[in-house]
Amino acid sequence: MYFVPMKTFTFKPRARILQLLGEQLIGSDRLAVFELVKNGYDADAEKVTVTLGGIGSSEPSIIVEDDGEGMDERIITDIWLEPGSDHRQRQRDKEIFSKKFKRLPLGEKGVGRFAVHKLGDRICVNTRRSGQPECRVVIEWSQLIQCKYLADAQVHVEILDHPQWFPGDKTGTRLAISGLKEVWNRGKVRELKRDITSICSPFEEQETFRVILQVPGHGTWLEDLLDVREVLDLAIWRFSFKFDESGFSWKYRFIPPPGMRLDKREADKENAHLLFPKDSQFADLDARSLLKGIGRVRGKLYAFDLDRGVVGAVKESSFIRSYLNEQGGIRVYRNGLRVYNYGTQGDNWLGLDLKRVQNPTRGISNNLVLGAVNLDLKSSSSLKEKTNREGFVENEGFKKLRDIVLGSLSEFLTLRGKDKERMRLVASSGRNLETRGIDVPLAELRRELVKRDLSEKLGGYVDRIAAAHNQIKEVMLNAGAAGLNLALVFHEVDRGVRFLHEAIRRGRPQEELINQSSHLTDMLGDMVRLLKRGARTRQNVVVVVNRALKIFEYRFRSHGIKMICPPCESSEKDPFVVRSPENMLLAAISNLLDNAIYWTGVRWPKLGENSNDRKILVTVSRDLDAGPALIIADNGPGFSDDPETLVRPFFTHKPDGMGLGLYYASLALQLSGGELVFPEKGDVALPPAYDGAIIGMVFNNTEKREP
User: What whole-number distance in Å separates Cα of residue 424 and Cα of residue 555?
Assistant: First the structure.
């Protein structure tokens, strides 16, 4: 047998790889400067000075100088001249802290130093380590990359007999970059100043690291720049939070603008429930599992209101608006140093701008908030920075962090909503009750039908849903009732379409899908008739409850809910008959069950095998003075707000909620001659296990029982 000898080869990187490392991986000149400043932090420096010299001349330069530990010949040759060196990564892994300020290094990939190539063609490095002579390295990048292979690119290290920049006991590193590739004008310099100012968190004092920007001959360029601390002092809302293994805690302050006759309000809570976005995959994890690889998450938010009726009460309104348009957003800091590009103009890592478009009354956009999320470098090992220095790799650790921040933000938005409404009333600015449409969920539903070859059987229902929705919209618009009532229709259609979509996606039986589709079209038909003052019909409440429980049967199973309804199982004849549109009554009950499912999951996040932790009870009670009532109780966290607030439209604690579920149920009861009540524990005879929310649907038009 004939064997072909195996040949071995090695990689031969071209010299131009240095150009790629610097010029292609770093997104902007400002990020390149930030990388060099970060190197000063890793070098245990207390101060880094960035000087833009000769601006406007034929020989401009950028000088970055720090007073850190510096380098000697060995470090230059064995580490600094090694692209991809793992020196800093090993320090982090072994938790080797710096001598002076006990820092762990931020760098880990060994390419940040090549950011200088993004800035200019020539670099002169002077550096000195304690007890060692000063060294100088001069690199002409344009000449260096003319070499074919990286191994042929020679760099000369000069040992100076007399120190040039670091005399006496001074140590540190000075990088002088010339042959600049970009023109630094007034606007660009001011942007760099803003970036440098935000390198260290403005929300926490950083006593051991300072960054200074100097522009000789152009000092006026940096005048009248807005100072972040001046802006923070004008914030209307202030919110801080912490999430660690002991749980979620927060503090809230509302400070109304001067001249607005409103009382300040403060609130705080320990061991609060962290509410996750509805699409989160981490809602069932305990705090320890959730924080693995992330560590403790702390944050501060300063929020503003740019509504004309409110901002008019603030003398510095144009000052605030200008700053927020440029600097608004929520940043991320690790060990007190900023992680770019979170919180920069155009970044929307939390999706705040889109959420505000979808729910303008509750949401908050980036230009209404200045915030910071603070992380610990040592315990956030799963958060890896991208090589291009534009945020973290979007892995599981990042997704956990994002959901924790969104959950914390949801708590703030709920608290803010109460005071925001009070301000609106005082300012008499009215409310713009915008709503979100249903085009997107309907389109997704149609795609799912096509995908599962169900268009022929269910497509007609979807068409009727869309037609009924448009008919309601037309009726409301003609009646001048577009705002709130139209939002209510969107809420019910959106909820119904989502449930139907989920049932189709999970492959539920066709009979069940047809029943859900029929219910949704019937409910919309009832809305049309109700708006046209249609008559109410005779309904047996227990029969309607049974219909609702059948619709929710799969959700109860999938969420591990122990559902009990004694009247549904009783053989005794005790009719609970009212006059109401059937499908509106069904929708009201469905909203209350939907809320109960969500909140029991919040209190009992871990869903164990055969677990009966999550409980919902539906029963009939005649204990209330207001009249006979359908009671829906659960063992969730219960209510922390007064009844008047709970049924207010657009008020919600859910991160992605519209705040219309309880409002809808309340309105449906009123239109049926009843009311929605919130009994205290003890007002209604219930088993002790149901210690969460208790809601009563009281009907004043029930038919009397026969003796």
Answer: 39
